[in-house]
Design goal:
With 371 residues, the chain is an alpha+beta fold. 33% of the residues lie in helices and 22% in strands.
Length: 371
């Protein structure tokens, strides 16, 4: 179901006030794209159903990775690709979280803070893997937000429960079905690796370092997934998630926005929060990543350079027959009326709107805002 309220509505109501929020040019460009997404401003196309003959007017998507309306197709395509890379082994979910003392640095130098987060998390897992004489693998996904849109940088990692020996054979790290490594030990090493990374990058704030070492760093580890299907479901939830979905917005007034969130300090209890429109957009904008920043990364034997060569060998090694490769479903758009026919494009139009009279002779015409 289409959500009743959208981030784009808040942006539209604020208008030029967005320019007064102290945002950088890239954040402003991103917000502008989100506001114009699936509106006449981006042009569109006229489609017809090959089966029932219905005609649809659809406005183009902005395709921005921070847009609440543009993640569905990207997520499905990415998940289909990952299904082909699964191994018949336990997978673990590990979360590396940065303490709030780094939030100020993250707002001013986000690329430095987030790149260091990726690097230190991988260095930590690599070091623990070396203790087992194996090379690890990891898929990591950056999230920067908490449920209330506050800055809360953390890295969700999917880690196979084993690694490669020097001869290329597989070695399982845990056979008892429990956690991959001890989380307290992971946290201490993660903290040391991260601070070392900041020093290498030229950060010289000793007060910051003292504050970071005074805190216990949190590394959260879940028990292994139930199987490959659960791994894929997890990836589907987290890979192309954004700071807030339109479905979480409960009301938009003249000055304020109300949205729902889960309070994890109260066992995930559902609550509502109300912010001014300016504060809502300011919080949303702080989760816009730097231009070109890669937020999903692969490491070790799951890296792009290694997996094409090593994964087929491992799949054959770990099972009598390699796991069945999921058939990539066609991404053809289906007719929303008859649910059977395929939509084909009749004409493309720009921001000036569709040609006059194009819809006049149709068997049935529906105006909508599909991507």
């Amino acid at each position: 179901m289409r959500p009743r309220f959208e981030v784009a509505q808040v942006l539209h109501q604020l208008g030029n006030q967005v320019n007064q929020l102290g945002l950088n040019s890239w954040q402003l460009r991103t917000l502008s794209a989100i506001e114009r997404c699936r509106t006449a401003a981006l042009g569109g196309h006229i489609d017809t159903c090959t089966d029932c003959g219905s005609i649809f007017l659809s406005y183009n998507s902005c395709r921005n990775r921070h847009c609440p309306k543009c993640q569905g197709h990207k997520r499905e395509a990415w998940i289909q690709a990952r299904r082909q890379e699964l191994l018949p082994v336990p997978y673990f979910h590990v979360v590396f979280t940065l303490p709030e003392e780094l939030n100020t640095l993250a707002m001013h130098q986000p690329k430095l803070v987030y790149d260091t987060l990726f690097a230190s998390a991988w260095q930590t897992l690599t070091a623990f893997g070396k203790q087992q004489n194996v090379q690890m693998g990891m898929v990591s996904i950056l999230h920067t937000w908490g449920q209330n849109l506050s800055l809360h940088p953390h890295l969700h990692c999917v880690v196979p429960g084993g690694g490669l020996r020097g001869d290329g054979s597989w070695h399982a790290i845990r056979r008892d079905g429990k956690f991959l490594f001890h989380v307290k030990a992971l946290g201490k090493m993660f903290r040391a690796k991260y601070v070392a990374g900041l020093r290498t990058a030229g950060i010289v704030d000793q007060c910051l370092f003292d504050a970071l070492f005074a805190k216990t760093w949190v590394v959260y580890a879940k028990r292994p997934f139930g199987g490959p299907r659960q791994v894929v479901e997890y990836l589907g939830r987290y890979t192309h998630k954004i700071a807030i979905s339109n479905h979480r917005i409960q009301a938009i007034g003249e000055e304020k926005v109300r949205f729902g969130y889960k309070d994890y300090r109260q066992q995930g209890r559902k609550r509502s929060m109300e912010l001014t429109q300016r504060e809502f957009i300011r919080r949303f904008a702080q989760h816009i990543l730097p231009k070109g920043f890669v937020r999903i990364r692969h490491y070790g034997f799951l890296s792009s350079t290694a997996k094409a060569r090593r994964l087929p060998v491992l799949q054959k090694q770990l099972s009598e027959a390699a796991p069945a490769v999921a058939v990539v479903q066609s991404l053809h758009r289906r007719c929303p009326c008859c649910k059977k026919g395929k939509l084909i494009t009749l004409e493309i139009f720009g921001s000036r709107g569709p040609p006059i009279g194009v819809l006049g002779g149709a068997k049935k015409s529906i105006s909508c805002a599909m991507a």
